[in-house]
Amino acid sequence: MALTNQAPGDMDMDMETIGREKRYEANIMSRFTETEIALIERLRALKALPDTSINVFDIGVPLTAAGFTQDEIMEVLFALEQDKIVALLPGNRLMMLRELPDG
Q1: I want to staple 56 with a disulfide (CB 3.0 to 4.6 A). Which of 3, 11, 35, 92 is the partner?
Q2: Strands (E), 1-103
Q3: C-alpha dihedral sign at 93, 46, 74, 98
């Protein structure tokens, strides 16, 4: 894309859009981290140790009551599964595969 073809105001608009997108991404990242911290604290409260099976509702209900959405909670659970800390099981259960990260 050649800058010479842009109207003078277009570059300002692009920088404004980029700034807005970066603020949006920062908010998303901090919300993920906030959800992750709350979820890990909840797992600790449930005394989640390796080879322990936990009902996902025991995690989700209190976190939802605390203002987290189901999508935010699942995004963190999927990340923990990808890191091989938990395995999501049928019947709304999860299995702890490793100890929780220090935090």
Answers
A1: 92
A2: 53-55, 86-89, 93-96
A3: negative
